[in-house]
Amino acid sequence: MERHEMTPVVEALLFASDEPLNIVAIRKVIEDLTAGQVKDILETLKAEYELEGRGVALLEIAGGYVLSTRETCAPWVEKMMKGKRRIRLSRAALETVAVVAYKQPIGRGEIERIRGVDAGGVLATLLERDLVMIKGRDTGPGKPLLYGTTQEFLNYFGLNKISDLPRLDELSAMAAKHPEWSEAEKARMEKAGLEPIPFEGHQPEDLLHAGGPTEEGAEVSETSEDAQGDSGAFEESAAEESEPAAVVDPEDTPTRG
């Protein structure tokens, strides 16, 4: 088949997939196309959606491509989806996954030191939801587990790569300038299934010193992991009903390769 005949096939694959598709995954289905040809088709589709002002857009998320409803259409999509069950991040989970994202690889003890509360239960739930993963062990006393974010984390937050996260000094400046979420920001967070957290005028000092996402493999301070707890990582409902976190110790979770 000619390249122009394969464009609707690529579009159909994107529509049917429930996760971002990268070029390798597309070529496994359409073997006659080169990587360059697939890339050209994707760029053409993206340009067509933008030029024609369609209700969907082609986005790069988590290292792949995904069809998504356009933000301007959000009010109508939300109206249709109202009352349907979805997963929300609680404040505890959002704080914990933010610490992991900006300081990875990081041990549980360091997470608890930054947040000031026990993190065992919330880490177990984040592991179960595949938003964080065990990346290895520290070389310090006790060799505590080290945690990092996953591809699902990028997909959940609509990021293409971890460096797309805003720098913490930028967030701090925004919080100082705008101490409350705007209605538009609240709507975007609601669409993403997130709970807006009230600003308290400061950010955890140790996290701010990170200055942004830590590169993988960066040195992490020695930590100890001897606590459990902090449940309620997610809220899942149509009527804001909460679901308690699973009672699982992440120390018993096998390391992912």
CATH superfamily of the largest domain: Winged helix-like DNA-binding domain superfamily/Winged helix DNA-binding domain
CATH topology of the largest domain: Arc Repressor Mutant, subunit A
Strand order of the largest sheet: 4-6-5
The whole-angstrom Rg is 20 Å
Strand content: 5-15%
Please tell me the total number of domains. 2
Identify the CATH architecture of the largest domain.
Answer: Orthogonal Bundle
Please provide the count of β strands. Answer: 7
Low-pLDDT residue spans: 200-206, 214-250, 252-257
- The CATH class name of the largest domain reads Mainly Alpha
How does the helix and strand content classify structurally? alpha+beta
Descriptive overview:
A hairpin with a 7-residue loop joins strand 5 (132-137) and strand 6. Helix 1 (3-16) packs across helix 3 and helix 5 (91-103) crosses helix 7 (120-128). This protein has 11 helices and 7 strands. The protein has 2 domains: 3-73, Winged helix-like DNA-binding domain superfamily/Winged helix DNA-binding domain (Arc Repressor Mutant, subunit A, Orthogonal Bundle), CATH 1.10.10; 86-250, Winged helix-like DNA-binding domain superfamily/Winged helix DNA-binding domain (Arc Repressor Mutant, subunit A). With 257 residues, the chain is α+β, with helices and mostly antiparallel strands. The radius of gyration is 20 Å and the shape is globular. The strands form 3 sheets. Strands 4-6-5 form a 3-stranded antiparallel β-sheet. Strands 1-2 form a two-stranded antiparallel ribbon.
